[in-house]
Amino acid sequence: MKVNLSGLRPLFGIAVAGLMMAAAIAFPSYTAHAQGQGVGLIRDTEAERVLRSKLDPILTAAGLVPQDVHLHIVQDPSINAFVAEGQHMFLNTGLLMTLDNPNQVTGVMAHETGHMAHGDLVRAAAGMKAATLPLLLSMAAGLAAMIAGAGDAGQAILMGGQQIAERTYLSYSRTVEANADQAGVRFLTATHQSGEGMLQVFRRFQDQEVLSSQHIDPFAQSHPAPADRISALQDLVEASPYRDVKDSPETIYAFDMMRAKLRGYIQPSDVTLRQYPVSDTSKPARYARAMAYFREPNMQKSLGEIESLLADEPNNPYFLEMYGQIKVEMGKVEEGIAPYRRAVELLPDAPLIRVALGAALLGTENPKYTKEAQEQLQTAISQDTDEPLGWYELAQAYSRLGQTGKAELATAERYFIVEAFPQAIQFAGRAQRLLPSGSIDWQRATDILAIAQTQQKAEKRGR
User: Fold this and answer.
1) What is the span of the domain harbouring residue 206?
2) Cα atoms found within 13 Å of the Cα of residue 434, Cβ hemisphere only
């Protein structure tokens, strides 16, 4: 498990941060938006696979291609999920750690898939444009009145126009959210799953909003009024022939392990140890404690917990990955190689684990492992080209092998991914001068150089 810096503000439903008064709205790419805010994105093979096992069938039912949809886990304690331009779905750790069962998380993902399938981010521009027209008209009339000497009347006109614009957009937003609910239930039904989890989530929101929303005009809320939403959802869920379908024991176990792992990794260790006291010998409890001790750090205790789990499941790739990581952190890097290798054998299509193996091989500083590290990292990059750490480690491997041009190109790739264009230009230029002219690597360096220069110019024009 590792954390990447990103910067996305979590909002349940479509990612619109309120009423933005503009004639049109453009949603920046999630990576560009990321650099300005500083929210953490967590990468973890186990969590991603648990979630994708439930998400991918829903995406297929929605007519989307699962490989084209990017799933991200945001380190944020709020119970939240949202989608962003370019088919990106974001789930907060608060959501994953707080909800009670897999079906609830699946229901949220189905709702967000509804937004994607309907193209709500693109259509939001139309809703925003419709909301802007009353504002612009009121601004013109209000300013005219103020110029004519009717200052109070002008201000009243301006305020009225703003309220109309806000209500127009929020009305549109409520319709979008209700449509996403309906689509989500359809996708769950198509995949023979119950919509009860989605219903439970919104009931939970309703309970939390009872006191705060008693005196709020429901039309001033961006989502359907809680009672109306629950009623509409209940009818849809009860009409499904799969309303009583429960999560399988295997699904529940995988979810419980993922949730325990996240809690142990993210929460203060004393909180985790209260939730999972040493008297609890269940696998999720031992997993959570292993992560909590690892973060303290108390590697000896963490090692003891993970060894007890491996005694029960010696071929669990996630336990092996954790075992290898603990050994590396203890300074016993070479002892971490074998469990990492075994985890890669069990999950050959898990690039994050393969990157960890490559890093461990390089971490020994033993030249006999350098070629193997380079091969493992090259394979990992071919599986996931957007992993900056993989490119960083690959650059180290190439450098040790004396392949300086390839090392410079790998570094350029790393900076290009995170949109650090000045650095990408610098290292792509170095690579271009060192690599054989006309080779595939040389052409890639040329492409990075050209694209990064264009992007850098565009950024300067936008300032």
Assistant:
1) 2-191+196-239
2) 17
